[in-house]
Specification:
7 helices
């Protein structure tokens, strides 16, 4: 039986625990929380060749990513999150053929909804293409500073009911 999940080695877990502190970007904090709660993160030696949908990377410097970026640039984009105060960076490797922006376009086409009538809410740089594609783009208050610059609006954090408040503000719900 093949199971979906996240796979990593112990070195990554220790690296994350040491580098993901409060004030880090939302993606980094999400990964730290998953590791602390042991949410379906399995040892790398249990990986059995399942399809890979996302690759998350973490690095102590951008220089460490130069060679992988060069090798993969034609097929993959490196969505780099905001650096933390220690210069530590993290992000995702995303296939250029498939991104959240293309997903918004496909859903709108399927439902015969003009793209200008779509709304996207995101918090990290892996949401960049989605926010660019949508008619209205919203970034969470606790989201990436770089993503906030692209967004039409900023809503409160998830913990402060940001999505609910964004829905009210943009008339998706009646309050």
């Amino acid at each position: 039986m093949i199971m979906d999940g996240s796979y990593t080695d112990e070195g990554f877990k220790e690296f994350l625990r040491a580098n993901a502190a409060e004030g880090s970007n939302s993606e980094l904090l999400r990964w730290r929380e998953q590791i602390e709660k042991s949410l379906n993160i399995l040892p790398m030696n249990e990986y059995k060749g399942q399809p890979v949908y996302k690759i998350v990377f973490m690095s102590q410097s951008k220089e460490q990513l130069a060679q992988p970026q060069k090798l993969l640039a034609s097929d993959f984009e490196f969505c780099i999150q905001d650096e933390n105060k220690h210069g530590f960076i993290n992000g995702e490797v995303v296939n250029r053929q498939f991104d959240k922006g293309k997903a918004i376009e496909r859903v709108c086409n399927y439902l015969h909804i003009p793209l200008c009538d779509s709304i996207a809410i995101g918090d990290s740089m892996n949401d960049k293409e989605m926010l660019k594609a949508a008619g209205v783009s919203i970034c969470m208050q606790n989201g990436s500073e770089n993503l906030k610059k692209l967004a039409d609006d900023i809503c409160p954090s998830v913990q402060a009911d940001g999505i609910y408040n964004a829905f009210l503000k943009h008339h998706l719900l009646c309050g």
